[in-house]
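Render this sequence as a predicted structure.
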Amino acid sequence: MPKAKYIPSLLSLFRQYGYDGATLSKISTATGLGKASLYHHFPGGKDDMVAAVLAAANDWLQDNVLKLLEGSGSPHERLQQMCDHIDELYAGGAHPCVLARLQTGTGQPVAHAQTKTLIATWSQAIATVLVAAGLDETLAQQRGQDALIAVQGALMVSQAIDDTALFRRTIQQLPQQLLRPA
């Protein structure tokens, strides 16, 4: 079996428990693989599993966000499509972000470089759309970062207060907020 088959289970585990909480026992149960089989597919152990999950996250970002932002349509339409996909990814604010979960604990050094690249790429893609909409480059860069802060902040707060309405409201308002005049 190719290891790609196990990525959804690993994503779910790392999303729920983070690096430290996703024990080999939990991973084995979720994937149906014994310890020897886990190391056969992921010779570097959890570090390889994290790398595979982050590679899948990068692929998802490329296919479901970056292509939309680089595509056709008005800046508002492209930003709205991005928000629709982000809303779907996080199940309307119910699912935590695997990138955020992997930035804490002993897994942080493993995930940091890939997470940093994903965030920078996403932020820059938003900024490019905002420049195309007529915003100044510096302001567009700031708003690209602000967009990710809004998404991640709303996700965290929604989960903390057990109310996904905050996340959904943030996602719905984001295109207008990003495109507002300086």
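Summary. The two ends are 53 Å apart (CA to CA). Residues 46-70 form the longest helix (25 residues).
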